[in-house]
Amino acid sequence: MESYVPKPLHEPNNGANAPQQDISGLDIGYRYFDMKNIPPVYAFGFGLSYTKFTNSDSKVSRLYTSPYTPDNEIMGAEPNTGINTSINYTEYVFPISGEIPRYQGYIYPYLDSANPAKASMDTDYGLPSAQYLPSGFNDSSQQASPAGGAPGGNPGLWEPVVTVSANISHTGAVAGHEVTQLHVGLGGDEPPRILGGFNRLYVEPGKSVVFAAQLLRRNVSTWDPATQD
User: Fold this and answer.
1) What is the per-residue pLDDT for 2?
2) CA angle at 45 for the pair 43 and 49, rounded to the nearest 5°
């Protein structure tokens, strides 16, 4: 277990008896072992089996897809819902004891104080927006995110771009299942391989089946923080 990241937490480390585990990047799980060249005791995805299989005739076929087009839409002004919200903070203070039971660990839609600065526990409370929000935060003609355009991101990210196939032959004596995995290597600072697809295939002795999987554009893409795309 010492080789696994993140390290197990044994004591609260974030104040108020709360746990805090910081995880960044993709170097966790099997990808961490690959990046650090650590031989695992039991490799990711390798199950114990009483029979044997071989893979052959692997093929990669590029699919016809439309070009990836970033979203160039100009966003309009924020909508005005016409709802007038009271700023009488006493209306939002947690009800007096006995009306609503309060249990530790749950989040309630109430304030602990009628003083908003105290209730927020934010040292920057009350500062002008321009002091902590980026420039253009209230500009109604901002450029839409190029990676957006629909729930789940740019629709082009969800288009199949590649089909990968291989013959799975059963060379053992007892019928069984083979879980075939497809991994993708994107190069650069990315993990050496990332799971892109898998399938569990039942094969009789002496028989062969075809494994096939599609990769979406998002499976063969990396995120660029500079362009937010």
Assistant:
1) 64
2) 95
- Spatial CA neighbour of 165 closest among 218, 206, 220, 208: 208
183 DSSP β-pair partners: 195
> How far is 169 from 205, CA to CA, in rounded Å?
8
Whole-number Å distance between alpha carbons of 101 and 187: 55
Greatest mean pLDDT among 8-17, 42-51, 146-155 lies in 146-155
Q: Which residues contact 152 (CB under 8 A, 6 or more apart)?
A: 158
Per DSSP, the three-state class of 155 is helix
CATH for the 45-68+149-220 domain, from 1.20.120.1200, 2.60.40.10, 1.10.150.20, 1.10.10.10: 2.60.40.10
Alpha helices in 7-91 (DSSP H): 30-36
